[in-house]
Write a structure and sequence with these properties.
The protein is mainly alpha-helical and about 120 residues long. Helix content is about 80%, strand content about 0%. The protein has one domain. The longest helix has 27 residues, at about 85-110.
Length: about 120
């Protein structure tokens, strides 16, 4: 049942994002920022953890999960360091995901021949 819940929740998130891209004039970058911010807001209110327990990877893999990770890092850093944790927490927890994206993107560019659209 865990796989089924992850599949339908992740699919519903992706379908809603696709509808948003098709029916509005929002650019993909703005939609991605909207997803990260939505995940952070849901995490702030404490609703993301129950959602994550129910949906598993269906909730943690899309960009909503990245917003949740950033908010968790900020909460921990603020409790440890106070005000300066607002700035430090997101960098600390988000660094692994950003680094992995850069490394895997670079490796893919070595394997395949990237071309500029033109």
């Amino acid at each position: 049942m865990d796989y089924f819940n992850a599949f339908w929740v992740g699919g519903a998130i992706c379908a809603l994002v696709q509808i948003l891209l098709e029916k509005t004039k929002l650019m993909p970058g703005r939609v991605m920022v909207l997803l990260v911010c939505t995940g952070a807001v849901i995490s702030f209110f404490g609703w993301y953890e129950p959602f994550l327990e129910y949906a598993g990877a269906g909730a943690s893999v899309p960009l909503l999960g990245y917003g949740n990770i950033l908010m968790k890092g900020v909460k921990e850093a603020v409790s440890e360091s106070g005000f300066i944790g607002l700035f430090r927490g997101g960098f600390k927890t988000g660094a692994v995901g950003c680094c992995a994206a850069l490394v895997f993107g670079y490796l893919a560019s070595l394997i395949f021949k990237p071309k500029m659209k033109g």
